[in-house]
Design brief:
About 20% of the residues lie in helices and about 30% in strands. By secondary structure, it is an alpha+beta fold.
């Protein structure tokens, strides 16, 4: 699939473009069925508001790397990408937090080597990159 042999030197964006997006496509998800931070900016919060005395400060908004949708535009899964210097499970908590905020049942994390899957509060599977949830 890719003749670049040292994934450790790839950025998170490279991992998304070279491994995760093709894995989503291979699992049957086309580009109309998921949103990527890079392409669509899947922002789901405006950013937390912090109060200090009589001053307010807003933190940065939250963005999901991928949100997968069914045909009816119903979000079903969040996929968090990490660079290959981290294990795939490293991003799972972040994906789970996003899934809870968006009321989505599935959370995934990947570093380009494999996917870790979580359904609500139950760790489901650790799958090779090509073995992702099918869109059907």
């Amino acid at each position: 699939m890719d003749n670049y042999t040292n994934k450790k030197e790839l950025s998170e964006e490279d991992i998304k473009n070279r491994y995760i997006t093709p894995a989503l496509n291979s699992a049957g998800w086309n580009n109309d069925e998921f949103r990527m931070e890079l392409k669509v900016k899947t922002q789901f919060t405006d950013g937390k508001i912090n109060l200090s005395g009589n001053r307010a400060h807003r933190e940065k908004p939250k963005f999901a790397d991928y949100v997968l949708y069914t045909e009816t535009n119903y979000p079903i899964a969040v996929v968090e990408a990490k660079d290959n210097n981290h294990t795939a499970i490293y991003g799972l908590q972040q994906a789970m937090d996003y899934a809870v905020k968006l009321d989505i049942p599935f959370a995934y994390s990947s570093n380009g080597d494999y996917f870790v899957e979580r359904l609500n509060a139950i760790l489901q599977n650790v799958n090779a990159v090509g073995d992702l949830i099918a869109s059907e």
